[in-house]
């Protein structure tokens, strides 16, 4: 089953392809209607539109990089408790945080989504032994990291 992040990534990739195609078509149509100089302008418009979508795609979270980062950092975090494990306990909380940020389209603060994140944690934490109050700082950390 695809995660929300994976579905959003596919949608963004499809949008990028669509903008590339439409940008090229628009540029060609403008060029054929108004002449060679304006054809260049039309191509530039299509390229700029493509660049904007590509920039958005580049801002998506790379789960592999996040997993690597948090595996290296979690022991240093103030909420770390030695009786919990990274893979079983902390990683699902980090994943919830960065996937939640992508789902929020990076437009909101963690606190605005905490109720939904908590519900999702309670229903999907799998084998993690962290309560929401223990998982919340890790989820917030991952959420906030995506801002920077």
From the spread of the alpha carbons, the general shape counts as: globular
What's the main sheet like?
none
Sheet-strand content, in percent, reads under 5%
What is the tally of helical segments? 6
Mean pLDDT: 75
CA radius of gyration is: 21 Å
Keywords:
0% strand; 148 residues; mainly alpha; 6 helices
Short recap of the structure:
The protein contains six helices and no strands. By secondary structure, it is mainly alpha-helical. The protein folds into two domains: 4-58; 63-145.
Question: What is the element layout, followed by pairings?
Answer:
Elements: H1 4-34, H2 36-58, H3 63-73, H4 86-103, H5 110-124, H6 132-145
Helix pairs in contact: 1-2, 3-4, 4-5, 4-6, 5-6
Model description:
- With 148 residues, this protein is an all-alpha fold.
- The chain has six helices and no strands.
- 76% of the residues lie in helices and 0% in strands.
- The protein folds into two domains: 4-58; 63-145.
- The chain is globular.
């Amino acid at each position: 089953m695809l995660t929300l992040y994976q579905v959003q990534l596919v949608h963004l990739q499809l949008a990028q392809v669509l903008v590339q195609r439409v940008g090229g078509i628009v540029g060609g149509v403008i060029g054929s209607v108004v002449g060679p100089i304006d054809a260049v302008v039309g191509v530039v418009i299509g390229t700029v539109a493509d660049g904007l979508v590509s920039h958005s795609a580049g801002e998506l979270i790379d789960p592999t990089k996040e997993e690597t980062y948090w595996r290296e950092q979690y022991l240093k975090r103030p909420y770390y408790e030695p009786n919990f494990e990274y893979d079983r306990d902390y990683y699902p909380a980090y994943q919830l945080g960065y996937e939640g940020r992508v789902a929020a389209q990076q437009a909101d603060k963690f606190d605005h989504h905490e109720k939904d994140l908590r519900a999702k944690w309670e229903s999907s934490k799998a084998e993690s032994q962290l309560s929401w109050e223990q998982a919340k700082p890790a989820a917030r950390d991952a959420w906030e990291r995506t801002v920077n």
